[in-house]
Amino acid sequence: MTSQVETMAAKIQGYKQDLGNSGMQGRRRLQAIEGMADHITLRRMEGLGIKEGWRCFEVGCGSGSIARWMSYRVAPHGHVLAVDMNTEFVADAASAILEVRQQDITTMRPPERTFDLVHSRMVLQHLAEREELVERLISSLKPGGWLLLEEMETFSLFQNDTGPFLQVVEIMHAMGRAAGTAVDWARTLPRTFQRRGLQNVNAEGEMLYFSGGSPTAEFHRLTGEQHWPYAEKMRLLTRAQFDQYSERLKDPNAWFYGPTIFGVWGQRPPA
């Protein structure tokens, strides 16, 4: 299936662009990601010691929940720079502490030796420039500053029983790979951090186990809605099959093995 998707996805104009997060459906998907992953991210940031006065950089701020939280934690003398290609859902949160900037991270040159904490979640794995971006983000750290990258890996999804959910997950996984998403990139990051001189490198993966109707279920349902028109055009998925998938994800009595949210962090050596 993967080779078929790779061949056909390249012929479908707008495929990768439509996997973004714009409009009301995009906002709902970003809110589902927050419900799915914010508690994990906040725990990890707390563990790194975020505090008043820190300067932070949020790469890909989505609808802004993490950027807002960081701005509360570093107030009143800290600063948070939050960037995204689309800032429509976070622009209203801008303040003297929280700077919101519409910016393509692939062309941005962040200031060097500036930040106490740099964070990105479920962004870099979708970008062809991911390795170069890691280097830039490390350069933006102050001596003693922390880089925390979080990405989603999908291997745990394949532990689900055969049925509508697993069937659609397999199709979306193949299409994501065809669009350039590095679905297994996160597991390489600890070695990357070490090679590039970071200290106190650590990593963990938190596998989500979720029920229908939960934020994680809504994330998968909305992600499926993004993929389904293209899967139909490539004759990989029928509407009836997708409807079975969607209805299953609304059932509070149904339980699923979810994705694994990998977190990798490391510290720039003190001066």
TrEMBL record:
Q: Which residues form the Methyltransferase type domain?
A: 58-148
Q: Give a yes or no for keyword Methyltransferase in this entry.
A: yes
One of the GO biological process terms: methylation
One Pfam family this sequence matches:
Methyltransf_11
Tree of life domain = Bacteria
> Keyword set for this entry?
Methyltransferase, Transferase
GO molecular function, one example?
A: S-adenosylmethionine-dependent methyltransferase activity
Enumerate the Gene3D superfamilies for this protein. Vaccinia Virus protein VP39
Q: Does the keyword Transferase apply?
A: yes
Q: What is this protein called?
A: Methyltransferase
